[in-house]
Every structure is written in C-alpha cells, then in structure tokens.
Design a protein that fits this description.
With about 280 residues, the chain is α/β, with parallel strands linked by helices. The protein has nine helices and seven strands; from the N terminus they run αβαβαααααββαβαββ. About 35% of the residues lie in helices and about 15% in strands.
Length: about 280
C-alpha cells in the first residue's frame, strides 16, 4: 500500500475562530513585517494568523537559528497549542466523539465541565466549544468559567483533522507557553507582534478574553514595553482599535500610526457590524 501523505506544513491555518483574529488584515500586516529578523514573538497569540502566514511563506528564520515564541495568558488556548504540538491524534479522536454527540444538551453538558484535569480533554473541550458557541466567542466570567451560549450552525467544523496535523508539524520547535506579555524577553534583531485585546469603541465592544480583563492601564503598560523593546533594538508592530485614547497613547515620534479597514462581525447589533477603522502601529 502507498504510504499516506503527510499534510503539507505550508497548509497550516488557525485551528480556532478568534474574536479580533487577523486573517482579514494579513495583507496589511505582512506588508509591514520586517524583511529580516532573528526571533519572532507573538505574546497575544489568539488564533495565530500572522504566525501561520509567516511560517507558510517561509519568512520565519527558524532554519537559520531563529526561534518563534508564542504565548498568551489564556491557559485553555495555550494548552491546546501544546497538545497539538506534542501529538494531535488523541485530540482528533476526542473531537470526533464531540462531533458525533453534538446537540444542544451535549453542548451545555460540556460547557459545564470547568474542572477537567486531562490536558487532551481540556483541549478537545476548548476546540469543541469554540467551533459551536455563538460567533466563536471565547468569553469567561470573573471565575474564569466559559459562559457563551451555543451558536446556530447547521454543520460546525468541529474536527478539522488535516489542519490539526499540519499545525502539529508547523509548531515543532516553537516555544509555546502561558505568559503575561510583560515577561517578554525580545532583544536586538527580533520582531514582536502585539495583538492585545482592543481598546473598546463603545459599551458593546468585546474585551473579556480572560478573567482579569485588559484595561487602560494595561494598554499603557504595553505602550511602555514597546518603547523599551525599541531601545533594545527589537522591531515592533501593534494592532489596536482606532480610538482617541490609542492615538494619544502612541503619539510619540517613536511610533508610526497606519489606519486600515477591517471587517468586524461580532456585535450584539447587526447594524453595528461591518468594516471599521483599525490601527497598525510600527516602531520602524
């Protein structure tokens, strides 16, 4: 029998839907990525759209001694990356079980499982809920418990096994960990992409990715870190919402502010969905 063909490493794409994911902005981001850099850091990795795009295009310097560092404060998300990196097959097996059993009652049964210990079960629950919940939101309460209602999908793509295997191959040799963005250790010649929870445009904007939230003080802490990284010789890109607060925060001559248009489909009011102005901020 002919040997089964392995999924192409260059076909890997984000394995979760993520509010604020950057697939639609990839052309704008890729055009601004430095031509040459040593290590790549993405501290608010989310779906990892830019990482996967750079890897697919062969623009990460992994063969030349560079390293990719992906991190986030969301344990469930990072655990899932780590499970896929180590061995996706047990995860695929459990996702197929979730797909077979999917129903409204089953969704809320799985959603209520906040105390799982097995890392593969935690990852399978994370992907299952992400693929079947309302608008792909990952929202937690003050206890860190996922609380999004089930979405209305005729045929949710719960188990995309070929992509999970491609992601497994892409994530080899990548440093993946739960880490606060302030712990970043980038230095001269490195490239850092920050995609933090956006500064709210209004009271309906979504920012509750973790139980701790992300407020104006955190935005200022991030700006200060960008300045410190620039002094160390790193190159930085920041994505954020187009608000007066963010424009003032990055008004220093150390930053260049670029206004772009991005689709936004997550809003409680359908009339508020559509293309909105966002900012891509660079230090070079």
């Amino acid at each position: 029998m002919p040997q089964a063909q392995l999924p192409d490493i260059h076909s890997a794409k984000p394995f979760v839907k993520w509010v604020g994911g950057k697939r639609s902005l990839l052309p704008e981001l890729l055009s601004r990525v430095p031509k040459d850099f040593t290590n790549y850091y993405e501290p608010f990795v989310g779906g990892g759209a830019l990482f996967f795009a750079l890897q697919n295009e062969g623009r990460l310097n992994l063969a030349g001694g560079g390293q990719a560092f992906l991190s986030d404060i969301n344990f469930d998300l990072i655990n899932t990356y780590q499970v896929i990196q180590r061995d996706p097959e047990p995860l695929i097996h459990q996702l197929k079980q979730h797909a077979r059993n999917h129903s409204k009652d089953y969704y809320y049964q799985i959603r209520s499982q906040h105390q799982l210990d097995d890392r593969v079960e935690i990852a399978a629950r994370f992907i299952y809920l992400n693929k079947t919940c309302y608008n792909g939101l990952w929202r937690v309460n003050s206890k860190g418990e996922f609380n999004v209602p089930m979405g209305s999908y005729a045929n949710p793509a719960i188990c995309q096994e070929d992509n999970l295997r491609a992601c497994h191959r892409t994530l080899q040799s990548v440093d993946i960990r739960v880490r606060d963005f302030g712990k970043l250790e980038a230095g001269p010649g490195d490239f850092v992409y920050f995609d933090p929870p956006y500064q709210p445009l209004d009271s309906t904007s979504f920012t509750s990715y973790s139980k701790t939230g992300f407020d104006g003080d955190d935005q200022e802490k991030l700006r200060n870190l960008c300045l410190a990284l620039t002094k160390r010789g790193a190159k930085v890109i920041v994505s954020n919402s187009d608000t007066e607060f963010i424009r003032n925060l990055y008004s220093s001559s150390a930053f260049a502010i670029h206004e772009v248009k991005a689709p936004r489909m997550v809003n409680c009011k359908a009339s508020s969905r559509g293309a909105v102005s966002e900012l891509i901020i660079t230090t070079y």
